[in-house]
Design goal:
This is DUF4247 domain-containing protein. InterPro entries: DUF4247. The chain is α+β, with helices and mostly antiparallel strands and about 240 residues long. It has a domain of about 140 residues. It contains seven helices and eight strands. The strands form two sheets. It has a six-stranded antiparallel sheet. The longest helix has 24 residues. The protein is extended and about 100 Å long.
């Protein structure tokens, strides 16, 4: 009984050890990529900034969705204009779109991007001093003047934003990518010669499944053939029954 309980406990521990890393590896940015279209990109390598647009949603609404998905290390006070969420490997700035106040922009910055572009004094109004100290390595970084995508033309980052390229879309694919597919239902009158031909085109390799007794069994490309039935042959007067070889 004790041995059974011990084995059961080990299984539970192993299961938890597998689930925790998976949950920890699910970044909030993955959720944003799946739900909102990518609008602009800046930086490369470890210094990246991706901007997404949440149409007809307020800043607090978007912030709540992300916090519910994964709790941040720190969340700035609720605001209708700008909020920050700090995670272990990224900082998310949620801001009202200047070109359309009904929309919200979600800017996902790597911590390296924040260190090299943002001003620590600007973030003092949103984040705790302890968080800023860790983020900017005790004042080693944080000497930029960038304040977010909505003000990029005034407080410019080190590199300029651009519309997402095909390579950018591969790295951070938006949910708005068109996807098409077809489902074909087998018909009772379907032509068996089309089996294995893919789209039905004459190009490419094809294969067929045929049965014995059909004239098509002589064609090349057959996969299966029905073996010929062999009946015993009786030789008169021999007293023996032998099979045809």
């Amino acid at each position: 009984m004790v041995k059974k309980w011990w084995l059961h406990s080990i299984k539970i521990i192993l299961l938890i050890s597998l689930i925790i890393p998976i949950l920890a590896g699910c970044a909030v940015s993955d959720t944003v990529k799946e739900q909102y279209p990518l609008e602009s990109v800046n930086g490369s390598g470890s210094q990246t900034s991706y901007v997404y647009r949440a149409a007809d949603q307020t800043v607090p609404e978007v912030a709540k969705q992300l916090v519910d998905k994964k709790k941040p290390e720190q969340q700035s006070p609720e605001s209708t204009e700008r909020m920050f969420l700090v995670y272990s490997d990224e900082v998310i700035q949620i801001q009202q779109a200047t070109d359309d106040p009904a929309d919200t922009l979600i800017e996902i910055d790597s911590k390296e991007y924040v260190r090299n572009n943002y001003s620590s004094s600007f973030l003092e109004g949103y984040l705790l001093a302890s968080v800023l100290s860790d983020l900017f390595d005790n004042g080693r970084y944080g000497h930029g003047n960038y304040r977010g995508y909505s003000q990029k033309d005034v407080y410019k980052p080190q590199t300029t934003y651009h519309k997402p390229t095909n390579q950018d879309l591969k790295k951070a694919p938006p949910m708005t990518v068109n996807r098409t597919g077809s489902i074909f239902k087998r018909s009772k009158n379907a032509d068996s010669s089309a089996v294995g031909s893919g789209s039905g085109s004459s190009s490419g390799s094809t294969g067929k499944v045929v049965t014995g007794g059909s004239s098509s069994s002589k064609k090349s490309g057959s996969v299966f053939t029905k073996p010929k039935k062999s009946t015993p042959k009786i030789r008169k007067g021999s007293g023996r029954i032998s099979r045809r070889r």
